[in-house]
Design a protein that fits this description.
With about 425 residues, the chain is mainly β. Helix content is about 10%, strand content about 35%. It contains 4 helices and 25 strands.
């Protein structure tokens, strides 16, 4: 079996290797045997057998969605040497990592049962600086042990991508403050792109409940025809007023002010390129506003807050959008699939909170796989997590030093958690 990369999780972690993690009752029993054995000739001490007889093992087969590309790369049997991360949702430490064999398969026999985030990733380098580097990624959620077929997709052609999300603020432990949210866009192509009229919004991504089951929500969560949204803002401009050059970063703040005046750990966003507008937020006259044009707006008056699924879309005629009543009430509008530019899909896990209940109403997917294949896991201590954000990974640099960011439509592998860096690409 391939080696597994694991890490101790501290006092709240669960046992991964049975012989090394024994309940207190077992230790007491072992201790009694030890003392007895000291005076009993011929007694041999052995570790208790606490293996799980019901663990049938997990086998994962990783393939490419594009059969023609798989044939060109010689991967018709599967993707070799793909990194596969297995992350048990209720365990607050990094995923276990295994690698596929020459046929794209890998087997693991010592996983604890439960719901797992399963992500596959493979990067093929170009061999020299500036040469083409390809990335492949995919993922899904499943209860393990099981036999898993996992398909990967190749990276997308250069476009405008969401490069960073900062959505924390300070908790009530220090200061109940959340207006320092910001996101960044990055021109990942080799030509100028114009922001004029584009939409920034939050898509349908409600947690399931006994009153709103996953089946009831599925038409809104997994609609292949587009993303359902109730709240979205629009970039100003008449068509070519706001160009974004190749390699340029655009910072958009909820409030374009110096938030460090409220707390020194918060970022200074007074020089942001744009700011969201609301009914009660401060207005920076030097920063262009992005008005809310959706069917609803943030009740706190500071512009739209970031939630589980965020998207960037081309300009649309809002009055022409299909609308419907969503489970739980409220009318939502569908942003057509052919207008969606980029999506970020995340799940936040609070490390100091009770493990989430993976009940029958927990929904495994929040968007159709055409938009994103697996959400990124963002761990939060719940105390002053204002210094980190989600960053899109750098795939390679061009000969002139411009960063090319990874985009395989799988947030789990496209993004990583690092220190916030408004206005810069660093990770």
């Amino acid at each position: 079996m391939p080696s597994r990369d694991t890490q101790s999780a501290g006092p709240n972690s669960r046992c991964r290797h049975a012989p090394k993690c024994v309940p207190a009752a077992w230790l007491a029993a072992i201790a009694s045997v030890v003392f007895a054995a000291c005076d009993t000739p011929g007694v041999t001490l052995v570790d208790p057998d606490i293996s799980n007889p019901n663990d049938k093992g997990t086998t994962i087969h990783v393939t490419l969605e594009d059969s023609a590309l798989a044939e060109a790369l010689g991967w018709t049997q599967g993707v070799p040497n793909a990194e596969v991360q297995l992350h048990r949702f209720i365990d607050p430490f990094r995923p276990d990592t295994v690698y596929t064999d020459s046929t794209g398969r890998v087997s693991v026999t010592d996983l604890l049962p439960g719901l797992y985030w399963i992500a596959a990733h493979r990067v093929v380098t170009g061999g020299q600086q500036g040469a083409a580097t390809r990335a492949f990624g995919g993922g899904l959620k499943a209860n393990l042990p099981a036999t898993i077929e996992l398909q990967m997709a190749g990276d997308q052609a250069g476009s405008l991508v969401i490069s960073e999300l900062h959505f924390h603020g300070l908790t009530p432990n220090e200061l109940d403050y959340g207006w320092d949210q910001y996101f960044e866009l990055y021109n990942n192509s080799d030509s100028t792109i114009y922001l004029d009229g584009m939409l920034w919004g939050r898509a349908f991504g409600h947690s399931g409940s006994a009153l709103r089951t996953c089946d009831e929500q599925r038409p809104f969560r997994e609609d292949p025809l587009g993303l359902w949204s109730v709240e979205f803002h629009q970039f100003p401009g008449a068509g070519t007023d706001y160009p974004v050059a190749p390699g340029q970063v655009v910072t958009v703040a909820m409030d374009a002010v110096d938030h460090s005046l409220a707390h020194p750990a918060l970022p200074d966003l007074s020089h942001a390129a744009f700011e969201l507008t609301g009914t009660a937020d401060p207005d920076n006259p030097d920063v262009p506003n992005m008005p809310s044009v959706g069917l609803g707006s943030n009740l706190l008056g500071h512009g739209m807050a970031m939630t589980r699924v965020m998207f960037l879309a081309q300009s649309v005629d809002v009055t022409s959008l299909v609308t419907a009543l969503a489970p739980g009430g409220g009318r939502w509008a569908r942003i057509p699939a052919d207008r969606i530019v980029d999506v970020v899909h995340r799940e936040t896990v609070k490390l100091n909170a009770a493990p989430p209940l993976m009940a029958q109403y927990y929904c495994y997917t929040w968007v159709n796989r055409a938009f994103d294949r697996l959400d990124a896991l963002f761990y939060s201590s719940g105390d002053s997590d204002n210094i980190t954000s989600l960053h899109r990974r750098i795939l390679q640099h061009t000969t002139d030093g411009r960063a090319i960011l990874q985009d395989v439509n799988t947030s789990f592998v496209d993004f990583s958690v690092a220190t916030l860096s408004p206005g810069r690409i660093e990770f």
